[in-house]
Amino acid sequence: MLDAYLTRWLPASMVEFDWVGGDVDNCRAGTPVVAVQNAAMEAIDYVRAQAGLPPVSENPASSSMAQQAALMMDANDALSHYPPETWRCYTPSGAEGARRSNLALGTTGVNAVGLFMNDPGANNGSVGHRTWLLEPGLRTVGIGQTPQSQAIHVVGADLVMTPGRHIGPPITWPTAGYFPRPLVPRSGRWSFDAYDDPTFDFDLRTATVSVTRRDVSGDTPVPTLVESIGADSVVFNVAPSEVPASSKHDVTYAVTISGATRVSTGAAAPDLSYTVTLVSPEDEDEEPAPPAVEFTELPWLLGTPDVGEELFLVYQYDATAPLREHHIEWLRDGLPIPGSGADHDSGHDVFHDITAADLGSRLAARVTLVAEDGTSISATTPELAPVRPGIPPTAAGSPTVAGRPKVGRTLKVLAPTWVPSPTRVTFQWLRGTRAVPGATGSRYRLTRRDLGKLISVRLTASLEGHQPGTATSPPRGPVTGRRG
């Protein structure tokens, strides 16, 4: 983590602004030199990587609009997403860029990216600039820069905003795990956002947030104020005075979000929690020794919560030496599933086959790692939605009826195979479309009531925990009478 900060963010922040052909006084937008553009792109990709997100690429057309927008902001010494045509250096392209961009004034380059991530100001309680830079659906950006302004074009044609663009742990800033202290928002605004993840079964609008500082002096509650909250996101203020700008020791902040409800049922939801450990590279002659063990990706589950399906546990960790213990435990409604807890060895324990015993329950998994020095960390995945009945058994072809459709004759069923295989199959013979009372065996003797009728049979396959499956034979008949 510190290596990335020291080798990516810091060098990029040292690149001085320069451009070619630019002149604010004469409304010439010019072009930032390649090193300046690359430094801004590196800063954007660094904060996205810190949050576990993929990099973005620069779109030249978007950068052209953003450059015109940045020139207008600099020339008028003001910010506006809807600049009027009376502004100095106004162009339609620049106005379009202003509508689609994060805008900064008084700074440029990497410092402007840092300003967007900090998101200070009375009108930025929802940290919209940060939210855009960490948007999982962001694919390309445009960057415009002048000596005193920056525009980052984020609302491009290839922006993906559909639910499901992000599935996994919610995106936080500061990010969970180890985090460089210099990038802690001095605005005090910390954020937690699931970005429309359809598997995030929490409604946060009734939630509260608490923060506890853990350092050499012990655990201390930290005053916390919720500034903005939505169904799957929350911005809360941790006063900068509670987060010193420097420290000789790493300090951990434990965040707990309580009082949320389930989207699927409206019932009370369990707490959401994570920790942020601040590291201060500027206070140390060399990078501190890495922790004995840490999660680099918090555990979360892949799969559909239906009986018969399989869940897959995903997580990553770093350890300085082989672990003393590596334990995975599957949970049903918060309680260990009997027989599921085992030391991790072959990797089979990262899978869970959903059975009828799980029906209606919420599944999760807990991972515990113990390093050789005794350091222990544990993390639990968010619970999934309640397990639903599995798919019904499906017949591999239609059942058929054998025998002559004649009064006094006996018809019998030639049953198909089913997938998945049922534990029980029942029969119901049909006269036309109506069930024949009492005719529930695999054979049926035709009577005079059946004369002139079409006869078929409906099979119902049952498997515990699954929806019932049905299959109906093609009709036989019409039934004829006996020869007299």
Describe the structure.
It is built from six helices and 32 strands. It is α+β, with helices and mostly antiparallel strands and 484 residues long. The protein has a five-stranded mixed beta sheet, with no helix packed on it. Strands 18, 19, 20, 22 and 23 form a five-stranded antiparallel beta sheet that branches. Strands 3-5-6-4 form a four-stranded mixed beta sheet, sandwiched between helices. Helix 3 crosses helix 4 (92-99).
Q: With helices defined by DSSP (H or I, 4 residues minimum), what is the helix count?
A: 6
Helix and strand content put the structural class at: alpha+beta
- Main sheet: strands, sense, barrel: 5 strands, mixed
Helix content: 10-25%
Rg result: 32 Å
Brief characterization of the structure:
The chain has 484 residues and is of the alpha+beta class. It has helices at residues 2-13, 34-50, 60-76, 92-99, 109-118, 128-133, and strands spanning 19-20, 31-32, 57-58, 101-105, 140-146, 149-153, 171-173, 177-180, 189-193, 208-215, 218-222, 224-229, 233-238, 251-258, 272-279, 293-302, 310-319, 325-332, 335-336, 342-343, 351-353, 363-370, 376-380, 394-395, 400-402, 410-414, 418-419, 424-431, 434-435, 443-445, 455-462, 469-472.
